[in-house]
Amino acid sequence: MAKLIDGKAISQAIRDEVRDEIAAGGIKASLAVVLVGNDPASTVYVNNKKKACEYCGIRSVSYELPEDTTEEKLLSLIDELNNDPEINGILVQLPVPKGINEDHVIEAISPMKDVDGFSKASVGALSIGDKGFVSCTPAGIIELLKRSDIDIDGKRCVVVGRSNIVGKPAAMLLLRENGTVTVTHSHTKDLASITREADILVVAIGKPEFITSEYVKPGAAVIDVGIHRLDPEKNNGKKLCGDVKFDEVEPVAGYITPVPGGVGPMTIAMLMKNTVAAYKMQH
């Protein structure tokens, strides 16, 4: 039976560390959060980020723009925030409405304020081992492993998924920690034979309960990045699931993250860390 990796407890510890650092150092960090449109999930995420800022002592400045906001208007706001010395980090909640180019938005944010770590400058810095902001979910994955005393050095690490936001940066971070890393994806042949070799298996494939016990090496650490909403009436009251079939994998794995309460809370905790890092970099 696997040991549960408690993302809620670990993320709370990180928030406490950020709060203490801010209080002790007289840090006056500010995060601008921009939400375009009224996507319900995005609204929930933004509200959670505001609450985390309040807890840590970070000033949260909110910009809620209507669904019909033009790309030009959004880029103009980002330019203002880039040039505002009182704003240390800028976060534009994704996805943005149709008609706005996501890449244009990401690249408009100054690398000094890119606390989401999505820009080409941030990803490039990560790829060559330079200092820069690391996207929050992959950074959270590394913290989960380290704070659960799971050694990455020399381990076989398999990442399922190659997205720019999770899969690729997670692979680069594992490599930076001296893991031996394989990235798999939708074109990978005989996926299970590769994932069964993993000491550390990171799953970010975007398919509900795709990874079953046949994909997992006994004793492996399994990090489930996926989150999917379910109909409780059809799933015995269950509202959420991940990319991993938890009930089947948990008896085989050595460590496993639950959904919810695993990777999810870490993303916002790492955003708080990045915002403080941005303040210190700018001062």
Structure description:
- The protein is of the alpha/beta class.
- The chain has two domains: 25-113, Leucine Dehydrogenase, chain A, domain 1 (Rossmann fold, 3-Layer(aba) Sandwich); 136-264, Rossmann fold (3-Layer(aba) Sandwich), CATH 3.40.50.720.
- It is 40% helix and 16% strand.
- It has ten helices and eleven strands.
- The protein has a six-stranded parallel β-sheet. Strands 3-2-4 form a three-stranded parallel β-sheet, with helices on both faces. The protein has a two-stranded antiparallel sheet with strand order 9-10.
- Strand 5, helix 7 (167-176) and strand 6 form a beta-alpha-beta unit.
- Helix 1 (7-25) packs parallel to helix 10, helix 2 crosses helix 10 (264-282) and helix 6 crosses helix 7.
- The longest helix is centred in the first third of the chain and has 19 residues, at 7-25.
- The protein is globular, with a radius of gyration of 19 Å.
- The relative contact order is 0.17.
